[in-house]
Write a structure and sequence with these properties.
It is a single chain. This protein is 28% helix and 28% strand. The chain is of the alpha/beta class and 240 residues long. It has one domain (4-237): Rossmann fold (3-Layer(aba) Sandwich), CATH 3.40.50.150. The strands form two sheets. Strands 3, 4, 5, 6, 7, 8, 9, 10 and 11 form a nine-stranded mixed beta sheet that branches. The chain has a two-stranded antiparallel ribbon with strand order 1-2. The chain is globular.
Length: 240
């Protein structure tokens, strides 16, 4: 039986249960949730929700949101459901244990305004596979590929709806190509750097279904100062 920890966010206003040794969310999810929360949209779909951290952050920040978290791994979906209940967010957040490739409108009543996803960054043939199944699925395209994620986003979004993701910067060409092939026009890019002297490892990408060409490239997001403390912008993301 797995051991669980309970972590807190926003000065204890959100409590998040997760596996100590299995999949655990990283700062990637916090960065994505904070960026997506600034975009317009009332109905949100989170593909690969894990323990439900992105819906929890977004719903806490905006009580008007309705968020659906999709998770194919039953144990993680069960943990996400517990987290929703323990934070009294059942009226805002619904967790569905489903394969995203099988999603349709009937499961959530109508198209959504926004799809968010913190997807696996690595192809199956890339890098060492983690022996822990939860971590392996989170990092490698075992259960869902980039193609699956963007195709699902296109299928579930309303026209002019937004797709927001955080992804490996070295696969930027892949994600831009896939988005355009599914009529999701890239509109916003922001590179993410560990510190001011490091190359980008991640990138925030936002697109609009059926949008017109034209992309904004924002100033870089720096996570850490030289002393390994968070920058002011990142610190704000953890404040209520």
């Amino acid at each position: 039986m797995k051991d669980f920890s309970t972590d807190t966010f926003f000065n204890g206003n959100i409590k998040v249960k997760q596996n100590r040794s299995g999949y655990r969310f990283s700062i990637d999810a916090v960065l994505l949730a904070c960026h997506a929360g600034k975009c317009p949209g009332g109905r949100i779909l989170d593909l690969g929700t894990g323990c439900g951290i992105i819906p929890l952050i977004m719903a806490y920040r905006n009580p008007e949101l309705t968020v659906y978290g999709i998770e194919v791994q039953k144990e993680l979906a069960d943990i996400a459901t517990i987290n929703v209940r323990s934070n009294n967010m059942e009226n805002q957040i619904s967790i569905l244990c489903r394969d995203m490739k099988e999603l349709n409108y009937n499961m959530i009543s109508e198209p959504v305004d926004m799809v968010v996803s913190n997807p696996p960054y690595r192809k199956i043939s890339s890098g060492r596979m983690n022996p822990d199944q939860q971590r392996a699925v989170a990092r490698h395209e075992i259960k869902a590929t980039l193609f699956d994620i963007i195709e699902t986003a296109r299928r579930m979004l309303r026209t002019s709806g937004r797709f927001v993701t955080i992804y490996s910067s070295e696969r930027l060409t892949d994600i831009i190509t896939q988005m355009r092939s599914f009529d999701i026009e890239p509109k916003f890019l922001r590179s993410i750097h560990s510190n001011k002297n490091s190359d980008a490892k991640l990138i925030l990408v936002e697109g609009i279904k059926g949008g017109r060409p034209g992309v904004t490239i924002a100033s870089p997001l720096i996570i850490y100062h030289e002393d390994s403390s968070y920058t002011d912008e990142v610190k704000q993301m953890f404040l209520p």
